[in-house]
Amino acid sequence: MAEEKGKKEEKKDDKGKGAPPAEGAEGEEGEKKKKPMVFKIIIISSIALVLLAIVVFVSWKVAQMTQDPYSGGKPEKKDEERKSTLKALKPFRLGSKEMPDFKMVVTDRGEQHNLKCVIWLGYSKDYDKKGQDFFNELTDRIPMLREIVYRVIGSKDLEALQIKNLDHVEEELLSRMNEVLENGSIVDIMFEEYIIQ
Hints:
alpha+beta; Tetrahydropterin Synthase, Chain A; 4-stranded antiparallel beta sheet; 7 helices
C-alpha cells in the first residue's frame, strides 16, 4: 500500500510539471506590464497639469496688462468719491415728451455716423429741500441744455465719442451747462442707450 501511495504522489508530481504556472507567477508578469502603464499615465497627467497651470497664469497676466482702468480692478479714489456722490443724486432726464432722446449725425473723415443716446443729469437731492427753483430752471432751460449737447457732441470726432472716451465729453458738458445755470449746478451726466452706427 505504501508503494501505491508513492506511485500516486509521483503521478501527481508529473501532472504538476506539465501544468500551467500558478496564479502568483502570472500575477507578477501582469504587475510588471501594469507598472509601466501606470507610470506613463502619471507622467502624462503631470505634464498636462503643468501646461494647464502655465496657460492659466499667462492668460491672467495678459488680462491684467490689458485691463481698462474703468472696467474694474481696484477702484481709484476718484471713482469711490463719484460712487458716494451718485448715491446722493437725483436724476433729471434731459428731454421732453416730443424729443426724449438725442439723435444726431456725426461726421468723421467724410463718413457719417448716427448717434442715439438718452442723457440724464444728476443733481443733488439737497436742491429738492430748498425748493423747486433748480428743478424749474432745468425744466425751463431744456432747449438751451440740449443745444449745448448738440454743439459739444457735434464738435467731436468718432474716436472721442467712443464709450471709453466719454469722460472728457462729460466734463466739457458739465462745465458748459453749469455756466448757464443760476440756481444750482449739475453734478454728473449719465448716458443711457448710447449707440453709434
